[in-house]
Amino acid sequence: MTSDSPRRAWRRVDGILLLDKPAGASSNAVLQRARRLYRAEKAGHGGTLDPLATGLLPVCFGEATKFVQSLLDAPKRYRATMRFGESTTTGDAEGQPLLRAPVTFDRPALADALTRFTGTTAQRPPLYSALKRDGRAYYEYARAGVDIERTPREVHVMALRLVDWSPPDAVVDIECSKGTYVRVLAEDIATALGSAAHLVALRRTATAGLALERAVTLDALEALDEPGRDALLLAPDAALGAFPPLALDAGLREALVCGRRPRHPAAPGRYRAYGPDGFVGVVDATGDELRAVRLIAIAPQRAEPTSAQRTE
Known about the structure:
By secondary structure, the protein is an alpha+beta fold.
């Protein structure tokens, strides 16, 4: 930043922004751009999308960052375009051609093959991925021409639905567990059909009860003023719908905040807890007591940041 550039005053912002990530940008680049627009002191995203991929990227600010893991762990939904007849080094359109194979199957055969890939399977991660071995990312080994052993990981595909078949391209809706590589899924489906394939498009449409229809593009976000941007934020508990709600009185809330484990008859499990003033955080019920997992901090009442506060 040049010396005559205006200094940015950071502020506390709490909530979840649903962004429609564009193609060609990394998830972290999109996150940092959104953070600067909000002047947010703290930010994180709820699940990396490859640069080629587009769609739903939840961005958590402030207290919402405490619950990012729930977004990371949640099942995801995608719309993928698989091009049959050719595989690539990366499994997507950014890679170099690797193997060509005929496309001899029809729509019914493809639809039948999709049914065979639902359920729990062991998936071998792609070499071009951010997973690490001995402190180095897999893609670093790939770029160096080194093929390393990749241990298969258990993934679960809840649904595969054929949306369109216009040879050689198939559009497929997918619902899957975290850690599922759609690139690998496309390759495996092609192998089962005696062909080859790679992804030419991937769009995340939903995660943790949050839908792409409510997402905003970066360009639209930049066109708004700050109050307009703030109005787009969802509450920090918006991605916690997988946990049942639990009502707490003021005494129970205070006990949890003070680090105690108050007695409570709730059935064992994890809950999103609410006190008299609203959302408290995530708690576990174990036996006859409650244990805090992550609690939010109450935002202090303060004026707009001044030059004495943290600046960039």
